Amino acid sequence: MEKGQPMWNVHPAIAPQEGETTIEKWHADAFYESNLADTLHHLGVDTLIITGIQTAYCIDTTCRRAHSKGYSCILVADGHSTLDSDILPAEKIIAHHNEVLGSQFATVNKASEVVF
Hints:
The protein has a single domain, classed as Rossmann fold (3-Layer(aba) Sandwich), CATH 3.40.50.850. The chain has 3 helices and 3 strands, in the order αβαβαβ. The protein has helices at about 35-45, 55-70, 90-105; strands at about 45-55, 70-80, 105-110. It has a 3-stranded parallel sheet with strand order 1-2-3, with helices on one face. The mean pLDDT is about 95.
């Protein structure tokens, strides 16, 4: 995915509204080489609700990094996804990461249980 290309764009159904804060990330770790930590600090955020795609990459890495930076993390169990790998179907990868990340790095809740 390259900036300016179709796969870079946010789907219109979830696109940020005018004036909303956006963070461009370039790596699986959303904190690496981005202004995410500075933005969260400026906004006074101490709890992150983590959703997205590529469970074994972006979700796992960002959840662990956020935990190590002192954030309280809520991983939305049914709010992240991935593709089948050569050895595991996506459902197993997701279930595994919910278990592992929930054991130390995050509280794992279903979307219906997440309250803002």
